[in-house]
Design a protein that fits this description.
mainly alpha, 9 helices, 4 strands, about 70% helix, globular
Length: about 250
């Protein structure tokens, strides 16, 4: 079995993550618009939006709380109810003691780590190194189709949607991310400079880690893209010229 090149592996991970992030931004906007049309009132639409994503919201906030507990950070409040704060929507919150940037960065990253771990479990475990390259989208789509034929598969697909669309760090989570971001840039730079040859163990760990995570991101992307296309088409149908608004 061929081992993927470290540079290609890191690039595949970064490009898949970026595509997923951009797709989810659009998906959330269109989903909120569709729920507003369905509910007819912003507050009711917000509750529907929160309820639809609740399993992921719960995991997100519990991840913050659990990481803070492990790191010895004082915890003040745990909230699981949606609120509008200015122009932003907050679906849950954990109020913590302000500590050093490194520990706050780890707390901010916890939902992403927990989310990817649960996605791997829902998908039957992390794929092998062969699940990479241009075949990723097809492999992800095939994995989703296989889930629909299994007992409880639709529940797992729903959980994939809820968790995969709430695992990204929120703006407040990203406030302390310069430390983790700097470490990531250093590792990426070392990879392109030939880290695997200089430090075989570290290079192998980085390559295998990103190779395992990329298919998990691709799985969520394969789930989100058809939903996004459907929501965009639905919005276009309602907004096309000549359509009479509902009373």
């Amino acid at each position: 079995m061929s081992v993927p090149h470290p540079v290609e592996t890191v690039l595949a991970f970064g490009s898949t993550g970026l595509l997923l992030y951009l797709a989810q931004r659009s998906l959330h906007r269109n989903l909120q618009g569709a729920l507003l049309r369905l509910a007819g009132h912003p507050d009711r639409a917000l509750v529907l939006y929160w309820a639809l994503l609740f399993p992921g919201i719960l995991l997100h906030e519990l991840s913050h709380w659990g990481m803070a507990l492990l790191l010895g950070i004082r915890r003040y409040r745990f909230a699981l109810w949606p609120r509008r704060i200015g122009g932003q929507i907050r679906l849950g919150a954990v109020l913590l003691e302000e500590v050093d940037p490194f520990r706050m960065s780890l707390v901010g990253a916890a939902p992403m780590v927990a989310g990817l771990a649960l996605i791997a479990l829902l998908d039957g475990g992390p794929p092998g190194p062969e699940a990479s390259g241009l075949g990723l989208p097809l492999q992800a789509g095939s994995a989703l189709l296989a889930l629909t034929r299994e007992a409880g598969g639709w529940v797992r697909i729903y959980l994939l949607f809820a968790v995969g669309n709430t695992m990204w760090p929120s703006p407040s989570d990203r406030a302390a991310w310069p430390v983790v971001g700097g470490i990531g840039l250093i590792l990426a730079g070392l990879t392109f400079a030939g880290l695997p040859e200089a430090l075989p163990a570290a290079g192998s760990l980085l390559t295998q880690g990103t190779a395992q995570l990329t298919p998990l991101l691709a799985l969520v992307l394969a789930l989100d893209l058809p939903l996004l296309v459907g929501l965009v088409a639905l919005r276009a149908a309602f907004e096309r010229p000549g359509r009479r608004p509902s009373p």
